[in-house]
Amino acid sequence: MKTTLLYILLFSLILLGSSFAPAAEKGTISGRVIEEVGGLSIPSAVISVYTEGSEQAIHTSATDENGFFSIKNLKAGNYKIKISFVGYAPLIVNGITITEKDYDKNLGNLKLSSEQNSLQEVTITVQKPAIEFGADGVTYNVGSTLLAEGSTANDLLKNVPMVQVDIDGNATIAGKKSTRIFIDGKPSDYMTSNIADLLNVLPSDAIEKIEVLTNPPVKYSGDGEGIINIVMKKGFKIGFNGNIGVAAGLQGNGNTNANASYRGKSFSVNGSGAYRFNTGKGNNHNYRENFFPDTTFYYDQYGRYKNKNKGSNFRLGLDWDITPKQNLRLSTNYNHNNSTTNSSNELHYLNESLLEKRLRNQLNTGDGSSNNFVFNADYNLQTDTSGGKLSVGLTFNTSGNIDQRLYSTTYVPLATSVPTLQQNNNDVGNQGLNFNLDYDKPVFKKRDRLELGLAYNYRKNDNDLLVENFNFNTQQFITNAKLTNQFFYKENIFSGYASYNYRNNGWGVKTGLRAELTNVNFDLSTGQNYHVNPYLSLFPNLSLNRFFRKRYNFGATYSIRINRPRENALNPQVNNVDTLNISYGNPNLSPSYTHQMDISFGAFGQKWSFTPRLSYSTSRGVIERYRTVTLTPGTNVARSETTFDNVGTNNSLALILIGNYRPTNKISTNGNFSVIQSNYTSKINNSLNRDGISVRGSLGFSMQLPYKTAFESNLNYANNANAQGRNKGSATTSFSARKMFFSNRLNFRVTVNDIFGDRSNTFFNEGENFRLENISTNNTQNVTFSLNYRFTKVAKTKIPPPLVH
């Protein structure tokens, strides 16, 4: 019944939006997009047309191989256009008026400047297309979607094309086993011990866009099979601007955030603050069949949990044009999170006849606290009049995480085992230092571009684990010497790269090579020392792009990436919270290398775009979690051990379809679908040799309605195969409606998540002597109300842009 009502509602909204479709007219806006430095044409630049006062673009197109564009069939009225292209600052042209007598507007040459120059941003903010496509990835413009307002970075990632967020808040790119999260081009995994903590409190109103880089350029580290880069707002408007928002949900969640910026003649200052709290609860059912030559028995486990989390985030930035040839950008970020957790589980031991032989009850409580501080400094210098630029960057971070857990276990009947009480205190500290030196210069009459760079990355991890068991006779906690230890990890990476970018007559070719020398050592306080011999890795990268016939784009890429084992996978500290399901790291892991190739084809129409992509990757020494089950001699107790290993090879072939369609000027739809065929071959365990198909997809729908209202919805689905099983299909939904007040300064929004019920996840796992099924449900069904107010005080005098940044 709910599904039928939903379809009726969507169909009614589509009919309502269609009634506002404009009749075909003869108005035309045309022009040519070129580089400000060098005057070369820019093919594939995105052209968006807006009616005066509109929140959504009515037409989206792209420039042809010579940079020309022409938007036709416009009715009489006032318009503005926005031009955007990766690597350049967006350009907005206002005050375009079409009348019956003057219907052909040729804007001539429109020049785009380097995106590095923040002070060349225009003073009026309008909507970008929600999704922009490129040969190397996808860009998701946060300001173009209702679901982005009043949310967090973690919420945004769930609706970004090609990105999947699991139940623990970890984001990955479709078809990629290891994905890294960057913030403003800097790796965030250096910034915090738990990236999910940062993403859960980072406010969406402080985010400009999210870039999904399936083929990262050699300027970036070779780590990971893809990069998700979160680009923060820098504050571009002249004068004082900002917003403040508050949101609350029926599940006991809420957040408040504010950000503001001030821009003067040669500098801009921006800052933001956010506070978030939420309550999570759920349950799970774990059923495992253990079969051995002489016996078969079962574990049937039921669990529940409830946790409360609260966190805050503060950012502050300065952008200063010291001289027309020098710029300095400074930024800091501080993040703090607290959590409390209560959980319980019941484990039923069943014999071969499914009769219960014993019951284990466990109650767990926990308190956690984490904080991280990051400081960034970037200096840019124009070295010559032809556009050469030298950039120096420095990032320092420090973070800490304290986790205290108490586990109480009893048995029925009591005679089978004595009760236990265990206390775990885990204190984790991280420190990091990143330095980069980059130089790029236009060459051959500014047609091509040469880039060179050096980098040094240092990181240190200190994981101090104290395990204590309670002695019921003496009523004291006694240190468990076998499990208590301290893990020290140090990593040094020295890098250098060179790349060359060629563009001419609709062709674009970018090739580069990155070299990285890695030196890692780690040890335990118990005396074990590990040293990884320094190793040199080479990462070639090639990207080919061709735009033709004014509406088609072909792209091909090739690169080699690396997945380095780091502290979480290497640390051999044993987690024995559940004595029947222990886990630990593997200090003998080796890095895994992936060769990946993509072919994409883009077709663009007046109201639509379609970008199919074919991706193939092959990896050796893939690092995966895997499980083994062993029988304790003389008992019917089977213990599961989970660790990491280089399980073997993985070949993956993915077909990814991305597109959007705008049937009227008030309705927009977008969707992406991927099917991935994976083939695992393991030298460790024959049960890991398997083929599997993963399916992922999402659909988005948005509509402008009368009286400054709007509606948006998203549906996401995923069904994934892994090395030892499968995550059964799960679906998530989001619906949002918004109403604007006071000249669009105040907006009220209602969002409904997972309207059909809480999110459920089913996981299957199989080995040589066990089969496991785990079903978990979380309280994701929620209704959230939010208010957001934007304020602007624009300077009265026009400030001329500086020459360079």
Could you characterize the architecture of this molecule?
InterPro entries: Beta-barrel_TonB_sf (IPR036942), CarboxyPept-like_regulatory (IPR008969), OMP_b-brl_3 (IPR041700), Plug_dom_sf (IPR037066). By secondary structure, the protein is mostly beta strands. It folds into 2 domains: 1-115, Immunoglobulins (Immunoglobulin-like, Sandwich); 239-524 and 537-793, Maltoporin, Chain A (Beta Barrel), CATH 2.40.170.20. The strands form 6 sheets. The protein has a 25-stranded antiparallel sheet that branches. Strand 20 (326-350) and strand 21 form a beta hairpin.
Given the helix and strand composition, which structural class is it?
Answer: mainly beta
Amount of helix:
under 10%
Arithmetic mean pLDDT: 81
CATH superfamily of the largest domain: TonB-dependent receptor, beta-barrel domain
- Computed CA radius of gyration, to the nearest angstrom: 28 Å
Largest sheet: 25 strands, antiparallel
Assign the CATH class of the largest domain.
Mainly Beta
Strand content is over 45%
User: Spans with pLDDT under 50 lasting ≥5 residues?
Assistant: 1-24, 115-128, 794-805
The count of helical stretches stands at 4
CATH architecture of the largest domain: Beta Barrel
Using the alpha-carbon principal axes, give the shape.
globular
Number of strands: 43
CATH topology descriptor of the largest domain = Maltoporin, Chain A
